[in-house]
Amino acid sequence: MTATLAIIGAGPKAVAVAAKAAVLRGMGVPAPEVLTVERSAVAANWQPGGGWTDGNHRLGTGPEKDVGFPYRSALVPRRNAELDEQMMRYSWQSYLVGTGQFADWIDRGRPAPPHRTWARYLGWVADQVGMRVLRGEVTGIGIDGDGWALSTDSEDGPGTVLADAIMATGPGQAERSILPGNPRVLSIAQFWHRAAAHERIGAERVAVIGGGETAAAILNELFAHRVSTITVIAPQVTLFTRGEGFFENTLFSDPTHWAGLTLAERRDAIARTDRGVFSARVQDALLADDRIRHLRGRVAHAVARDDQIRLTLHSDRAGESLETVHGFDLVIDGSGADTLWFTELFTQDALDLIELSLGGPMTGERLQESIGYDLSVGQLSPKLFLPNLSGLNQGPGFPNLSCLGLLSDRVLGAELTRPDPLPRRTNEYQPIR
Question: In which pathway does it act (predicted)?
Fold first, then answer.
């Protein structure tokens, strides 16, 4: 009985898993059927309409870290070299060769591609492997026998997807902000929609909330707009630069020794290389622009008053709690992804089962600490894969683009069904592209 893996969101992780599953089946090796539920399009978040970019900014990770990287498979004894060779057919270089762009890319010095080009690459892979995509939105996740039942609202109306396992991907919605509906407060999506439409922002005092790469991309775009001062609001004591040397990068592409680190060492490594840090390229731009300053604190409250947005910042200094109020003409909420966006989808029966496996209420901390080797919630059956929450336990490369090939290995190497599964209805959905 072939298992079904349902993936919420047709981004890089979904494409990587679907590609390797297709290659395995082509080699005669059993692999689950992969069905992706996507409300927009393949790689939508890398395109202007997805709300996370205008499509023109450069990819922060090298494009060679593609859907098969690092090409070190360990799924099929004595045939892993063959598996990697087959996956190379869907590499970044193969895409460039297949679309007549390879020589030009080499001659230009192998530049990082714009986000929209990366999206085209992912779409090309999805087409090549025949990835099944249901165009719709997941509205609920419940239990059906030994598996999951995903309620969906698709182009054909409401429906149900039955799956033996689920993988939730993506950063959530980019439309949220600290003061919805106020024209002086922009969400990530609102900011990038304006940038994509070439609307110039003109303001005296602008605040950008967030100290990670989402906020960094917004800053990189703001440099070209008519603003007098830009204040970055983040809880860190300063704006740290992401470590991008060989040893730091190895943590992302080769997590072999990650489990041997203490919890404190892992948290420290993530803080120095991944969470709340700017890339060296963005930091160089910050140094060259004297409009930028940093304000330490967390936004506790926001209110519109006197043609300004007044932000109340909370910070701890010298063991004391301190609150300060600052006024801005425009606030851009770039606080980034919501890694727990999917938790609101669970029905009560599904939530009860998850909390039973966690040994308590479902929280972000409990979920992170439960993630096992296969990137799923430990002790939970049916499987729930959460690669975006796996960094603490399994390595910092899994939540991002740094080791998509290893990610697909971990997921596809998991046991997705119980030894004697109950009879299940089959999905009637057809691929939608």
Answer: Siderophore biosynthesis; mycobactin biosynthesis
